[in-house]
Amino acid sequence: MRPEPDCSSPLQAAGNLRSVKKKTFEFARLSRVKARDRPRGKPRGMRSLSDSIQIGSTSVINPFKKKFNPAWYQGTKKDSRHFEGWYFKIIDQNQHHLYAVIPGIFIDKNKTDSHAFIQILNGSNNNTHYFRFPIEDFQSKDNDFHIQIHSNSFSSKTLYLDLSHASLKINGELNFENLIPWPKTFVSPGIMGWYTWVPFMECFHGMISLNHTIQGYLNINGRDIDFSNGKGYTEKDWGKSFPEAWIWFQSNHFHAENVSCTGSIAIIPWIHKPFLGFIFGLWHQNKLYRLTTYTGAKLIHLEIEDSKIQSTFEQKDLTLEIIIHRSDGGFLEAPTINGMTHPIYESMQSTVEIKLSKKSMNQNEIIFMDTGRHAGFEISGNVKRLIEMHHSFKSSRCHR
Q1: What is the pLDDT of residues 328-341, one digit of tens each?
Q2: Could you count the other beta carbons within 10 Å of the beta carbon of residue 225?
Q3: Terminal Cα distance for the chain, rounded
Q4: What is the pTM (predicted TM-score) of this model?
Q5: Which of 195, 239, 262, 289 would bridge with 282, disulfide CB 3.0–4.6 Å?
Q6: Residues near 392 by Cβ (< 8 Å), separated by ≥ 6?
Q7: Is residue 338 within 8 Å of 316, Cβ to Cβ?
Q8: 82-116 pLDDT, tens per residue?
Q9: Around Cβ 250, how many Cβ atoms within 10 Å?
């Protein structure tokens, strides 16, 4: 396990968005950013958690609008237990610098456990850092995805970091271009389909961008790292707790251009008994192929070994075959009903083989076949029960 860093003294800074942008332009021009003290303050249009408690949350005013925009902060003043985290994956053009940046908030009945946080995973050496902040430092903007934690800010198109610890100092701004969002309709407002509208879900999942181009620099431990023309990916989770068990992967580094894939399998609590839910999305040639529980896809095969995971899905005339080759990773903190206490293993250097084919007459037409590099990968929880549930469902289906 990694030691818990003492991050109680990030650089004292804040300031409004105009000063941030001004410094960013200077940073880009000089190819160097020096952290500067800025007066603490709340940018225009932002509300802190205490604001929500005092004047009410937009989720009370218009819950439909928030559900239809999963990227927005989904918490409300009524929450006695709530977590929400945004996952930014950033990789430079030369693929030498791999990072996951995860800002979020955890609200618990025990107020002393409630806090905001920013987790950093260095995918190159698997080092992780957990920066903890007072919950009052978390601010969110109404009717948009824009959050601020202390002097750090995040949106769908921008990431600004100003973090300092004995072993990690990181400062700078990245901008995201040509975002590819998950398409949405009234019935299916996001990656979870109609399950988005189910109020008692344990954990919700949102997709902000399957793939985008990065512009900008980060100064990491005194060294300027150019992320310009690199690739990024952004998603999020929120709810009461992470699932009992899950498998997740993502890659947008294939030999073919403009390709991205993401997928997950998890134990989903339901009214009478839990079930295995899964989501897979492949963006290829400007088209999104979706094989999910809510689109009627079936998990035909699942095999988990120490070094790899194999799975096969079928949906109408489509067959999807996935092989994930695991690599070393680091440990991040995930929410449970007992707090941010569950260490999860995540790798950013796994590989994933994808083969999507379509049955045509008496032969299979290969739509896509390639190997993704720098794949984000997680496997956590009661994986044994996940496998048993799959075998049980497969056996009952064969005897129908």
Answers
A1: 999 999 988 778 88
A2: 18
A3: 46
A4: 0.85
A5: 289
A6: none
A7: no
A8: 999 999 999 999 999 999 999 999 999 888 899 99
A9: 24
CA dist 272 and 365 (Å) reads 40
User: Within 13 Å of residue 381, how many CA atoms lie on the same side as its CB?
Assistant: 19
User: For position 36, what pLDDT does the model report?
Assistant: 38
Query: Domains in the chain, please, with CATH?
Result: 9-239 (no CATH), 241-400 (2.40.370)
Of 278, 384, 264, 271, give the one whose Cα is nearest residue 324.
264
